Amino acid sequence: MSDSRLRDYSHSQAVLIGVSNYRCLRSVPPAGNSLDRMAGLLTGPLCDWPEDRVRVIRDPRRRGRLPDTLMAAYEDVKDVALFYFVGHGQLVDDELCLALGESPGQGYRRSTIGLPFADVRAAFQACDAQTKILILDCCYAGVATQPRHSLGDGHAAERLIDMTVGTGAVTLAASGAYNEAGFEPDHAAPRPQTYFTKYFVDVVEQGLPGHPGGLPLHLIYARTADALARDRRPVPTRSSRHHADRFIFARNAAEASGKPQPETPTTPPPRPSWGPPQEPGLGSAQYTEFVPPKPSRPPVSRAPRGPVSRAVRLLFALALIPLTWLMFWPMQSERFSTRALAFCGLIVAPVLGLWLSCSAVARRNGRLSKGVKVPAAVGIVVHGTMAFTLLTSRFHEVGCPEVDQKHGKCP
Asked: How far is the CA of 260 from the CAs of 162, 246, 257, 264, in angstroms?
């Protein structure tokens, strides 16, 4: 790899914020790992950012002086301004808020304790950088790609950017406007990461054959989006103005190392027919990715329903234990139909209870409390034992059409 620097970043600034420890929200350890990996990528040989031009803010607790910190960080930037956030994202009155360590789960204090995206947008508006890059790895990050949020205020967004000659802005979001992002579970890797950052950095570190001039952002995003969709991960979104997504973000590791790489798509998705017309001499026109129409109201988070649903399944599972034993009474009936029906109940009830107990502890991520683990374990053991015993010892009794009245068993 060449010793010459990719570009001069002496008049650039990158601010990276990562929050993995939360007091009220679920902690996200992969966010800290993603923060480390993004910082390592920027200051590594592929991107060549000087360490003194990359500011890392880890686990900020409250909004406090963060807006002023961002404003001061980008104040004298003339070349590239980059902002990266990884952690929880929240919607407050249809506005994106970046959750910090003490952010509550509900209420309007989310926007006074957390960092509203409007503060980031204000710092970027006041910045004179020629290229502005936003990378948001959080839930509902797609809100930042909508025109009304793109470095402007309402209808003035396009006018403000157009008045800044030569300024380009690109926003890469880990999810849609009303969708959640995701991260690797603890057992998936020694150091699990958030999906978007992991796939994004993987693309840069692997490189793309056939691009000796370096990797522009639009190719990195296209490859990242393809890989996420292929693996059925949350689909990212983006917006770009004034060709900012053509910014050469990193060296091409595939060309620099000379190692053969698998065939992969190296062009972005085809541009839609509804985009703006191409102007002579300016190359292909830029466009903003389509965002689905906003629903009448933002969907309620699914997080509160998880524990409730598990508790209901456990209650049903535990209630089936005495019900199963009560079915032994009709098993003593002289009528074959009554005994057969009771036997079916004896088979179905333990199997259903076993399924309910197991499904109550099934999870994608997060931790289960003892209040869930203990009754679930009881349900699994009891129902599993009953189901195994009945399935292996009761078939002969049900299949017997005649009953010995004296001894109560098949002759």
From this structure: 42, 25, 9, 12
